[in-house]
């Protein structure tokens, strides 16, 4: 999926993403505000994982969002 489409549907996307990444706070989601790199950074920070793993998780989530 094109990230621009996710950013354009950010409110709908955020609800599903909050289910996946529950450790991210409402403040985190405000900072992310549809920016893919910000999401990767926050996932990496909150879950204590490598950037590569955070990128992989976000990419997998993007693909699952395409199916919806």
Describe the structure.
The protein is mainly α. It has one domain (3-67): Protein Yjbj, Chain: A. 78% of the residues lie in helices and 0% in strands. It contains 5 helices and no strands. It has helices at 3-8, 10-20, 26-32, 36-47, 51-67. α3 packs antiparallel against α4 (36-47). The chain is globular. The mean pLDDT is 88.
Q: Count of helices?
A: 5
> Can you name the CATH architecture?
Orthogonal Bundle
Question: What would the CATH topology be?
Answer: Protein Yjbj, Chain: A
How many strands in all? Answer: 0
Q: What is the strand content?
A: under 5%
What is the percent of helical residues?
over 70%
User: Unreliable runs, pLDDT <50, ≥5 residues?
Assistant: none
Question: Order of helices and strands, N to C?
Answer: HHHHH
Largest sheet: none
The radius of gyration is 11 Å
- What structural category arises from helix and sheet content? mainly alpha
Question: What is the 3D shape?
Answer: globular
CATH superfamily, called what? YjbJ
**Count of structural domains:** 1
Measured distance between first and last alpha carbons: 11 Å
The average pLDDT score comes to: 88
Query: Quick one: CATH class?
Result: Mainly Alpha
Key traits:
5 helices; 78% helix
Short description, anyone?
With 68 residues, this protein is mainly α. Helices cover 78% and strands 0% of the residues. The chain has helices at residues 3-8, 10-20, 26-32, 36-47, 51-67.
């Amino acid at each position: 999926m094109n990230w621009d489409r996710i950013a354009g549907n950010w409110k709908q996307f955020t609800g599903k993403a909050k289910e996946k990444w529950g450790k991210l706070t409402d403040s985190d989601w405000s900072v992310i505000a549809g920016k893919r790199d910000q999401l990767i950074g926050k996932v990496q920070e909150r879950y204590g994982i490598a950037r590569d793993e955070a990128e992989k998780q976000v990419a997998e989530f993007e693909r699952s969002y395409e199916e919806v």
